[in-house]
Each structure stands twice: as C-alpha cells, then as structure tokens.
TrEMBL record:
<feature type="binding site">
    <location>
        <position position="126"/>
    </location>
    <ligand>
        <name>[4Fe-4S] cluster 1</name>
    </ligand>
</feature>
<keyword id="KW-0808">Transferase</keyword>
<keyword id="KW-0004">4Fe-4S</keyword>
<feature type="domain" description="Radical SAM core">
    <location>
        <begin position="140"/>
        <end position="361"/>
    </location>
</feature>
<keyword id="KW-0949">S-adenosyl-L-methionine</keyword>
<feature type="binding site">
    <location>
        <position position="161"/>
    </location>
    <ligand>
        <name>[4Fe-4S] cluster 2</name>
    </ligand>
</feature>
<comment type="pathway">
    <text>Protein modification; protein lipoylation via endogenous pathway; protein N(6)-(lipoyl)lysine from octanoyl-[acyl-carrier-protein]: step 2/2.</text>
</comment>
<dbReference type="Pfam" id="PF16881">
    <property type="entry name" value="LIAS_N"/>
</dbReference>
<dbReference type="InterPro" id="IPR058240">
    <property type="entry name" value="rSAM_sf"/>
</dbReference>
<feature type="binding site">
    <location>
        <position position="131"/>
    </location>
    <ligand>
        <name>[4Fe-4S] cluster 1</name>
    </ligand>
</feature>
<dbReference type="InterPro" id="IPR006638">
    <property type="entry name" value="Elp3/MiaA/NifB-like_rSAM"/>
</dbReference>
<feature type="region of interest" description="Disordered">
    <location>
        <begin position="32"/>
        <end position="54"/>
    </location>
</feature>
<comment type="similarity">
    <text>Belongs to the radical SAM superfamily. Lipoyl synthase family.</text>
</comment>
<dbReference type="InterPro" id="IPR013785">
    <property type="entry name" value="Aldolase_TIM"/>
</dbReference>
<dbReference type="Pfam" id="PF04055">
    <property type="entry name" value="Radical_SAM"/>
</dbReference>
<keyword id="KW-0411">Iron-sulfur</keyword>
<keyword id="KW-0479">Metal-binding</keyword>
Length: 410
C-alpha cells in the first residue's frame, strides 16, 4: 500500500518565502475571509428583495407618544392585569388605574413632620394604615399647611377588620400616660388650625380608651384654644356613656366610620363592629352636644350595590349626620380582602352630588379620599368658624336688646 506523503512544518520555524506568480495574486488570511468565493460583477441596479408588510403594520399602529401616554379615562379598563416573572413561571398581577397612582413621599416637610412624630413617640394613621394621600397631606409648603391624623393609644388594635393594615393583638401594650401631653405639645408646635385625632380599638380597656381620648382633647384645647379638633373614634363596644364623654370634651367634629353598607358589614369589619351600633354612636354624639358636627366615611369597591348605598345614605340622614365621605377601597396586602371594583372618578362625583341633594352639609368623594381628607377639613373649619361668628353676633344682639329694654323701662 502506497503511503501518501505529508508535509509537516514546525510552528517555530521562520516563515516561508513569498513567491510571486503572475497569474496568482498574493492573498493574506484577512483578504481570504473578506473576499467572496466567486467573483461578482459590480451591481448595475438595486437588487430585488422579497416584499415585507412589517413596516406597513408598524406605521399603521400607535405612535410612541400614544404608547407612553396614559389612556383616556373612558377607554381604560376597570381592572388591568399584567404578567410578571420569567417565561414558564409568570404570574398575573393587578395594576392600579391611572387615577389611583400617587407619588412617593420624599419632600423636606414630609421628613420634618416624621422626625417630630418619632421624637415624641407619636403614631399616625397616615403611616399605619398606608394612606395613599400621605405625600399630599404631609407635603404642604409649611407645617401649617400640612395635615396629619394622629393615632392615639398605640399602633396595635384589638380588632381585626378585613380591610385594615393596622397591627392587631388581644393584649396590646399599655397606654402611654404622657401621650395626651406630647400630642398637645406637638400640635401646638405645628400651629395647625384643624387637627384630626383617631385611635385603635382598645377592647382590652374597661372604658375602651375614652378617658384617654377626652384628656388629649382637653389638653389640646388648653394649649391651643383656637385649634379645631376632629375625633375619629371607635364604637366603644356600644357604651354610649363613653361616646358622651368624648363628645363633650371640647370636641368640634365627632367622626365614626360605618365603612360599608349594612349587608357587607359582617364580611368587611370585625364581628364586634355592627352597622346598627355605629349608627347609635353617631346619633348619641349628636344628641349630647348641641351644634356638634357628625361625620362618617364609606368605602366603595367592596361589592356594594347602588340600592344598598341609597339605603345607607338614607339611614345616615335620619340620624342627622352632617358630613359623609366616599373613597376607594385599596387592598393593603394579599392577606386582606381583594378589591371587587375600581370605581371611576365619574361615579364618585355622581355620589357626591346625590349626597348633597339629600341634605348633607358636605361630601368629599373621590378615589383617593379618606375619612380625614384635608379638603373636607378645610370646609368643616370654615363652617365651624361661621357658626361661631353667628353665635357671637346673636349674643351681642341679645345683649343690646336687653340693655335697650332696661333703659326704656327705667
């Protein structure tokens, strides 16, 4: 068998001499790669390509501006979903409508108020309940323009409502005896014209915390007599004597939230919070103090019907509730009730008009409205001051009339 000769060359050997041949040009490795294997003639016309419709479809679709701009309110679906995660392990999440998206709080006034609260060991429902308005309410041009709802008696509630993110426990920490003084001092520093106080439910206390609440209000009035105070209280397990104690402590507005319609109350609120019990609290507060403004709040989007809302407003007017607010329920965590419907701003406006037509003194209604919404506070503040001026005028006119009658008789 004939062996085929094989030429081997050491890699360290010097390069082979280049031999120029008239018929074969010199070709390097680079030129061998870049040059085509077959010689081609220079193009004399534009090469023909297979037609494509991709460019036509792209031009017919939405522009970049239309893609990145928020959709119109009427065109936006009530509930939007999106897929997140890697392929094969994606899950569907619910995205908030554009009218519920709020900025992250990060301004100087927000940080200043937060430092004051932590320095005095105070809590706010703005933080504990994850209110979406915290950037708006705490972000005023100065502290006097800000609104913070102080939460008394700690940050742990004895009830477990299915919509609320406040911590719960059967045995929360004991009350801070210095809290009334610290709260009054903090509010005096801020120089607010109107303040909202609220509290967790304290069913572990014999009085439900009513005396602690009343003491705080009295200390605020002693340090800042012109400051108007709204108290958003619990139901004190139906103890109307405790309701009267808070209502007569120097309060200007007594607020207690029914939260939802009567039929949904057992599914939404703690089993100890009953719709009829809440109505009795609002009614009794109105009866024990003449001229006291009463206020309540209702969440929409929990599955309530139009007829149920009409019935709820009718019952509130029957006990002379002055102010009602409507806001969108927003699920704080996955452990809480899911949102049934995201209600549009147009529907909120419709219910605002209906409430005013029924005779309510004021109604704040909107997706981001909460029971302590500052627009409502500004209106109520004006109402209270107007009533005070009218009372002073009436007293002055009565004194002049008595003086004139005495002079005439003599």
């Amino acid at each position: 068998m004939a062996l085929k000769a094989t030429r081997l060359r050491c890699l360290c050997a010097p390069p082979l001499p280049t031999i120029k041949h008239p018929l074969y040009p010199i070709r390097t490795f680079a030129t061998a790669i870049s040059e085509p294997t077959e010689p081609t003639a220079p193009p004399t016309s534009t090469p023909r390509r297979s037609p494509t419709t991709f460019k036509d479809r792209l031009n017919a679709g939405p522009s970049l501006a239309e893609f990145i701009s928020p959709p119109a309110e009427d065109d936006e679906p009530v509930i939007r979903t999106a897929l997140v995660g890697k392929a094969g392990k994606q899950k569907e999440i619910t995205r908030l409508p554009s009218w519920l998206q709020t900025p992250i709080p990060n301004n100087a006034n927000y940080k200043s108020i937060k430092r004051d609260l932590r320095g005095l060991n105070l809590h706010t429902v703005c933080e504990e309940a994850r209110c979406p308005n915290i950037s708006d309410c705490w972000g005023g041009s100065d502290k006097s323009a800000a609104t913070a709802t102080i939460m008394l008696m700690g940050d742990t509630c004895t009830r477990g409502c299915r919509f609320c993110s406040v911590k719960t426990s059967k045995t929360p920490p004991p009350l801070d005896p210095h809290e009334p003084e610290h709260t009054a001092e903090a509010l005096k520093r801020w120089g607010l014209g109107y303040v909202v106080l609220t509290s967790v439910d304290r069913d572990d206390l014999a009085d439900g915390g009513a005396n602690h609440f009343a003491e705080t209000i009295m200390k605020i009035k002693s340090k800042a007599p012109s400051m108007l105070v709204e108290a958003l209280t619990g139901d004190y397990a139906g103890d109307l004597e405790m309701v009267a104690k808070v209502a007569t402590s120097g309060l200007d507005v007594y607020a207690h939230n029914v939260e939802t319609v009567e039929k949904l109350t057992p599914m939404v609120r703690d089993r100890r919070a009953k719709f009829g019990q809440s109505l009795s609290v609002l009614k009794h507060a109105k009866e024990v103090k003449d001229g006291l403004i009463t206020k309540t709040s209702i969440m929409l989007g929990l599955g309530e019907t139009e007829d149920q809302l009409w019935e709820t407003l009718t019952q509130l007017r029957m006990i002379n509730v002055d102010v009602v607010t409507f806001g969108q329920y927003m699920r704080p965590t996955k452990r809480h009730m899911p949102v049934h419907t995201y209600v549009t701003p147009a529907i909120f406006e419709m219910w605002r008009q209906r409430a005013l037509n029924m005779g309510f003194l004021y109604c704040a209604s909107g997706p981001l409205v909460r029971s302590s919404y500052k627009a409502g506070e500004a209106f109520i503040e004006n109402v209270i001051k107007k009533r005070a001026r009218e009372n002073q005028t009436a007293i002055a006119e009565g004194a002049i009339a008595d003086s004139f009658a005495t002079t005439t008789a003599s």
